[in-house]
């Protein structure tokens, strides 16, 4: 993934992290904190009440323990039972019961409590039969108010403090709290002085109704406050979540189409392809381009162009499965898609159908859509089981789709191109050439070959065309068809053409000085040069620098170059002619009709394209066209050169029709300068 997109992904992740989950997390955190505060407050308060209330009981027990000391010193409890109306136990140091009255209903867990009147901690046990309070695992004391209020099952009710034995179930009896005091049995242990024994007695923690209500009221007030706090926090969190959702949506939305944007495509698309749910599916990453977008904007307006993009986005989106397909507006006229497919035919038919539908949107206009496709098949392990696509990189897949689509760019027609091995090797070749071009020029790896042009009537040399060859130390001998189109694309062609002009001018000058019978040599000049207004001057200067006479150089312009700025072209041709150079139209008849160009351009030579002489040339129609083209050139005062002539019949025919020169394998292939020298010859030889 590119740096920019990785950064976008990071921003998105941060936004997401600090967004909805962050809000939910803080809500949960504050809720727990509020509940904790509530419980701590209630617990502290209850504990305070408990300690205050039980102090009295504790004092009584201490007194009893003191009086009981004598009674137990000699191991008898005589007289003690009359003093105490509670259930009690006498325990020794190690906790063994040495005497008892009533049932020992202590629960096993004990709590240490300190009363203000004494600095000692004393042991407090809950009662086994009652669960009004309990001591939890941490050893903290807590009260079970809900149990008291709600579970009648174990709640104990004492109609009056004196009737301690009369325990009844609340559920069994109608309780009138207003007249009652609620008791909780609590076992307390008090030291019995030097006897090293303890008095453990069942005392009662009591609450009268006022106290009880006060407790409830305080708990209720705290609960209401907490509830209010939580509610307002909840509302705030919901609002936050909605806002965050909007922000994320905004982050994902394309401002032109209102659909998904490039970031959404990369993030969601990546997850879609890598998901283990989708491991059994085949996916196609598609770059779909609305070719006419710029023109449409120029003809109408940018707003209308964008409206059209919106409509297109709508049509594409409506054709997708919401579950596992997606579309995004990736750049001005491009859409990025992820489609699920079953097999190649189904995908092709689907894309054709989509393009067809999209073409209909151009009511009145001919709309063109081009799609490049990179296919991602399900990946399997060694045993053939589908596995997650862990290493897939959506951005580079999309790049491949774009590369495939670019192969259609020149056609100007709707179409679909699939990324395959051929494109990969073309890409590689493109890179290899591009990497080496500069060094190759510096090292003079480019060679000038000459292909002679002969007069078909006299078989004499009348001219030649300079054609480039590349003798690369690592790529080998390369013909121009393999690198000139690349140089035309990357602009290096300008330097190549200058290189050729300089070398041809230098060769001509050298041959002239050496006494060869020099004939004009034509040099190809690419259309890329015509953006330079001083092209004619540049060419003249290069040729003058070599000291070559102007009439020995001819400039070849390809037919396609004539579609650029016509006015500038005519201007340059006139200047070149003014400096004494010949100017020719190369490849006349290939591709585009350039009769119109012939009308406007003051050219000297018409080069008939090799295609005229391919296939069934001997048929009447082919001959008629060539014969008429020669006549046309003559009436425009132009010379004709027939390119690509390979057979004698064609040479004879062209001689008969008055074609001035023939450049073809029949006479000679393009040859190195040393061979060409021999073809020129010297008059004195
Ligand atoms: P072009 O300028 O139309 O050159 C004629 C091409 O036809 C040459 O191909 C030549 O070898 C080929 N040819 C000539 N006679 C025959 C024939 O009888 N049979 C067949 N089969 N082919 C024949 P080449 O040298 O491969 O050049 C291809 C194209 O590359 C040229 O077409 C030209 O457009 C471009 N090119 C070559 N050198 C240069 C250059 O220095 N600058 C620029 N801008 N383009 C160049
Ligand atoms: Mg040419
Ligand atoms: Mg040509």
Could you describe the 3D structure shown?
With 685 residues, the chain is of the alpha/beta class. It has 3 domains: 35-219, no CATH class; 262-419, 2-Layer Sandwich (Alpha-Beta Plaits), CATH 3.30.70; 430-680, Alpha-Beta Barrel (TIM Barrel). It is 44% helix and 22% strand. It contains 19 helices and 27 strands. Strands 18, 19, 20, 21, 22, 23, 24, 25, 26 and 27 form a 10-stranded mixed beta sheet that branches. A 6-stranded antiparallel beta sheet has the order 2-1-10-9-4-3. A 5-stranded mixed beta sheet has the order 12-13-11-14-17, sandwiched between helices. Helix 14 packs parallel to helix 15. The longest helix has 54 residues, at 20-73. 30% of the residues are buried. The model is unreliable at 131-180 (pLDDT under 50). The protein binds ligand C2E and magnesium ion (2 copies). One magnesium ion is lined by residues 465, 524, 556, 586. One magnesium ion binds next to strand 23.
The portion of residues assigned to helices is 40-55%
- Note the beta-strand portion: 15-25%
Q: Describe the biggest sheet?
A: 10 strands, mixed
Report Rg: 51 Å
CATH superfamily grouping of the largest domain: EAL domain
Q: What is the CATH architecture term of the largest domain?
A: Alpha-Beta Barrel
Count of domains = 3
């Amino acid at each position: 993934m590119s740096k920019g997109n990785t950064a976008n992904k990071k921003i998105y992740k941060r936004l997401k992290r600090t967004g909805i989950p962050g809000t939910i997390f803080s809500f949960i955190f504050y809720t727990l904190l509020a509940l904790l505060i509530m419980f701590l407050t209630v617990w502290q308060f209850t504990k305070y009440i408990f300690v205050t209330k039980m102090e009295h009981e504790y004092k009584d027990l201490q007194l009893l323990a003191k009086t009981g000391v004598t009674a137990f010193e000699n191991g008898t409890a005589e007289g003690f039972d009359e003093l105490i109306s509670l259930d009690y136990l006498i325990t020794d140091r190690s906790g063994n019961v040495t005497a008892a009255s009533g049932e020992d209903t202590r629960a096993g867990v004990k709590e240490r409590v300190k009363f203000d009147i004494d600095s000692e901690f004393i042991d407090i046990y809950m009662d086994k039969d009652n669960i009004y309070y309990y001591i939890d695992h941490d050893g903290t004391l807590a009260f079970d108010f809900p149990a008291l209020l709600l579970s009648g099952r174990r709640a104990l009710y004492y109609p009056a403090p004196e009737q301690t034995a009369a325990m009844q179930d609340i559920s069994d009896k109608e309780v009138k709290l207003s007249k009652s005091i609620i008791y909780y049995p609590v076992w307390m242990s008090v030291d019995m002085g030097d006897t090293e024994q303890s008095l453990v007695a069942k005392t009662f923690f009591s609450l009268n109704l006022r106290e009880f209500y006060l407790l409830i009221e305080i708990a209720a007030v705290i609960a209401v406050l907490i509830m209010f706090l939580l509610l307002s926090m909840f509302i705030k969190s919901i609002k936050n979540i909605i806002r965050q959702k909007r922000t994320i949506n905004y982050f994902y939305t394309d401002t032109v189409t209102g659909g998904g944007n490039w970031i959404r495509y990369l993030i969601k698309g990546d997850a879609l392809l890598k998901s283990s749910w989708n491991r059994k599916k085949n996916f196609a990453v598609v770059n779909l381009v609305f070719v006419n977008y710029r023109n449409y904007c120029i003809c109408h307006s940018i707003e209308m162009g964008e409206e059209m993009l919106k409509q297109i986005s709508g049509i594409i989106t409506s054709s997708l499965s919401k579950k596992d397909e997606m579309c995004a507006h990736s750049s001005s006229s491009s859409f990025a898609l992820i489609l699920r497919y079953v097999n190649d035919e189904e995908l092709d038919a689907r894309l054709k159908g989509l393009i067809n539908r999209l073409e209909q949107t151009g009511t009145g206009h001919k709309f063109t859509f081009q799609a490049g496709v990179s296919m991602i098949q399900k990946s399997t392990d060694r045993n053939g089981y589908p596995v997650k696509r862990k290493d897939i990189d959506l951005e580079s897949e999309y790049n491949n789709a774009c590369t495939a689509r670019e192969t259609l760019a020149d056609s100007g027609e709707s179409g679909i191109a699939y990324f395959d091995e051929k494109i990969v090797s073309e890409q590689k070749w493109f890179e290899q050439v591009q990497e080496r071009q500069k060094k190759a020029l510096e090292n003079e790896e480019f060679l000038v070959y000459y292909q002679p042009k002969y007069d078909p009537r006299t078989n004499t040399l009348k001219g030649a065309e300079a054609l480039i060859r590349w003798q690369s130390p690592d790529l080998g001998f390369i013909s121009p068809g393999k690198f000139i189109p690349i140089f035309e694309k990357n602009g290096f062609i300008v330097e190549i053409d200058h290189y050729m002009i300089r070398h041809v001018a230098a060769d001509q000058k050298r041959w002239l000085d050496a006494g060869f019978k020099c004939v004009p040599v034509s040099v190809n000049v690419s259309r890329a040069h015509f953006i330079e207004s001083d092209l004619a001057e540049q060419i003249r200067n290069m040729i003058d620098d070599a000291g070559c006479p102007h009439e020995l150089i001819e400039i070849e312009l390809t037919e396609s170059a004539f579609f650029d700025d016509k006015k500038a072209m005519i201007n340059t041709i006139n200047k070149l002619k003014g400096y004494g150079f010949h100017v020719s139209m190369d490849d006349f008849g290939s591709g585009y009709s350039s009769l119109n160009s012939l009308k406007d351009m003051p050219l000297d030579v018409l080069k008939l394209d090799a295609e005229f002489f391919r296939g069934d040339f001997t048929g009447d129609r082919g001959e008629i066209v060539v014969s008429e083209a020669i006549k046309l050139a003559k009436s425009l005062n132009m010379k004709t050169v027939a390119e690509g002539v390979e057979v004698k019949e064609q040479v004879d025919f062209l001689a008969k029709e008055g074609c001035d020169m023939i450049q073809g394998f029949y006479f000679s292939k393009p040859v190195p300068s040393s061979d060409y020298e021999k073809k020129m010859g010297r008059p004195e030889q």
